[in-house]
Amino acid sequence: DDMLVGDDRSEQYEQIEAQNDKKELNLTLIIYGGLVLSAVYMMVCLLTLNGWPVTNTQLTSNSVIELVETVPDVLNVQRENRETYLSWLDVINSAEKEICITAYYSTMFCMDTEQNKCKDNARQVIAALEKTNATIKLLIDGNGFGDFADIEYYQQNFKNFQVKYINYSQLFSGVQHTKIIIGDKKSFYVGSSNLDWRALTEVKEVGLYVTGEPETAEIRSYFDQLWELGTAQRDQLANQRQIQKSKEIYNKFSLKNPLKLNDSQFHIASSPAQQNAFTRTHDLESIVKVIDSANKTLFIEAMDWAPFLVYSKPQQMWGH
Fold first, then answer.
1. Which residues form the PLD phosphodiesterase domain (predicted)?
2. Rounded alpha-carbon distances, angstroms, from residue 210 to 59, 63, 173, 311, 312
3. What is the pLDDT of residues 169-210, one digit of tens each?
4. Domain extents for the chain?
């Protein structure tokens, strides 16, 4: 789960930074839902400020984007960004009507290791979800990891809880790899972190916390599309009517028609292409756009980077 940043920087960056000139922020959230023929497990985002990474940027008077991350304690590195779980708490606690969540799997209770090794980050998230009066909608991969014991707990302990399952492997191929948490139309998190206590403590993760109504409404349209494809039972498949209806949930903004925010531009791209409404940009198009925009350097953060299908049996070169 990764980040790709295109760099068009000059050698005089320090001078430019000191001048504090206005920069243009081109933000693309790339969401790999099905991971179709993907050699790299990529989910997150492309973030450039004239090619430079941005940690916290005011998009408009009402919109902010913030880089958040999980850095394992064993890594002796400088921590400059807020922790992932804090952004999750912000989204959950701000919601009054609905909290919408997508994940590959859920293992939030730290039951498979010594309890004294577990921080309470995940416990704080669960406590916030138990406390909220907002309806919680969870979309999860029907073939995901784990024994789904978390789901039973959610059904018993969350006040207003709904769950749907999606089986990408049978619908399109691949898996439901999108990880987002949306609070009403106020804010959202999108990133690499699953609903997993490790993702909040032990695994290097990166994501974006975004506030703003138009931005949140845009990613909510993507969630609504996935929700339409979901089913009540793990072994069920969406029928053709559901598939067609999901493609009729349109988004407003795309690579060719981005949301304009002062000096910034915003759109969401996703895969697989087969599920996208005609208004949605395919993520491959946005990835290529960022790569093409770089004159000197590309910054890529990846879980796996190999020219073959790492998880296929037998393994084969990508594209064959």
1. 172-199
2. 10, 7, 30, 32, 35
3. 788 777 888 999 999 989 999 999 999 999 999 899 999 999
4. 3-301
Residues 142, 230 contacting (CB under 8 angstroms): no
What is the sign of the dihedral through the CA atoms of 183, 42, 276 and 150? negative
Long-range contact pairs involving 47-51 (C-beta distance under 8 Å, separation at least 24): 47/3, 47/5, 47/208, 48/5, 48/6, 48/7, 48/8, 48/290, 48/293, 49/23, 49/24, 49/25, 50/8, 50/9, 50/23, 50/24, 51/5, 51/6, 51/7, 51/8, 51/9, 51/293, 51/294, 51/297
Tokens of 166: 């999606």
Candidates 261, 210, 274; CA nearest to 37 is 274
Q: Per this entry, what is the length of the chain?
A: 320
116 vs 129 pLDDT, higher one: 129
**SS3 helix, strand, coil % of the chain, rounded to 5?**
25, 30, 45
Alpha-carbon dihedral of residues 92, 144, 108, 124, nearest 10 degrees? -10
Split at pLDDT 50, 70, 90, the class of 6 is: low
Q: Please tell me the distance from the alpha carbon of residue 46 to that of residue 29, in angstroms, as a whole number.
A: 6
Query: Token pair of 25, please?
Result: 């922020």
How does pLDDT run across 264-306, given as a tens digit for each residue?
788 888 888 888 888 888 888 888 888 888 888 888 877 777 7
What architecture is domain 3-301?
2-Layer Sandwich (3.30)
Taking the alpha carbons at both ends of the chain, their separation in whole angstroms is 23
C-alpha to C-alpha distance for 300 and 318, rounded to whole angstroms: 18
Q: What are phi and psi of 181, to 5 degrees?
A: -130, 125
